[in-house]
Write a structure and sequence with these properties.
The chain has 186 residues and is α/β, with parallel strands linked by helices. The protein contains five helices and twelve strands. The strands form four sheets. Strands 5-2-6-7-1-8 form a six-stranded parallel beta sheet, with helices on both faces.
């Protein structure tokens, strides 16, 4: 079985930048590795994985995890997945299938949603990963370490793709302050 690296943290913690760095530092040729992002991530360029800081690499867009299988031809030895939390409930099984085939997987994603809860299948993916890299951002309010994503929008939809127009990274104190009366009761 191959290696699985999971890069996770809040928004603006550098997850996509780290994913792109792993891709760029891989000794494999372009025909031996592939990068993907969820179809719903419509920020920046459609067929490119882009960091908030401007780094980019070519990438396929997929709407569900199973769409990775046809992309992974016999030459593919590494798969890079951005925004893995958006690929649905079957993503852990698909990642396991790739690992069993000997394909190395590097994925990045939000570990928590804007309500502070574990995001989708991220807890399962964290248990599966033999390399876990937790990144932290700086709190938009105080500059201290931030592990939470705060959303300015009044929408209560769980998935709402945005950038600095809607989101900030925050420390726990300033995330709770921002959430105010709408702090989740779990």
């Amino acid at each position: 079985m191959s290696d699985f690296t999971l890069i996770y943290g809040s928004m603006f913690s550098g997850k996509t930048t780290r994913l792109i760095e792993y891709y760029n530092h891989s000794p494999l040729s372009e025909v031996e590795k592939v990068a993907v992002k969820p179809m719903l991530d419509n920020r920046y360029a459609a067929h490119r994985i882009s960091s908030h800081g401007g780094l980019q690499l070519p990438g396929h867009r997929i709407s569900k995890a199973e769409e990775l299988y046809p992309i992974c031809n016999d030459q593919i030895k590494e798969v890079y997945i951005d925004e893995v939390q958006f690929l649905g409930s079957t993503i852990p099984d698909v990642v396991l299938g790739l690992l069993i085939q000997g394909i190395k997987v590097v994925a990045s994603g939000l570990d928590r949603d804007y309500l502070g809860r574990p995001f989708g299948e991220m807890p399962r993916l964290m248990k599966m990963a033999n390399n876990r890299i937790q990144l932290q951002a700086k709190c938009h309010v105080c500059g201290k370490a931030a592990h939470y994503t705060y959303r300015h929008s009044s929408s209560d939809e769980l998935v709402l793709v945005g950038h600095t127009d809607m989101y900030e990274s925050r420390c726990k104190i300033h995330w709770e302050e921002g959430m105010g009366h709408s702090l989740p009761d779990w």
